[in-house]
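Hey, can you fold this one?
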Amino acid sequence: MTDPITCPECEGRKGQRIGAHFIVCPFCCGRGWVGGEYEPAEAASKPPPPWPAAWEHKVWHDPIVAAAISCRYCLGAGTVTKVDEAARTMVTADCPVCTVPDDQTV
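Sure. Predicted structure:
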């Protein structure tokens, strides 16, 4: 543990104000300082497990939810959107799971 110091991320401001909302600093958790018993470097020795994909969430075991939303991949919207950060573009396409291409209609 180290002695408490001003948070290097928020510089002691405890977060950031965006319009009417105050976003708490994720590094110091809104304290404005780190160290002592609140040392971020010692908080976890291993990274947390990744979140499951939305279509694998446990809510789909509920028959009411599964019946209300027709597609787990696009949540019934029929389209999916992908953000390409490298190209700085957003692409929307038909859902590959619930939409059938015109040449494969029955």
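The helical segments are 63-68. Let me know if you want another pass with a different chain boundary.
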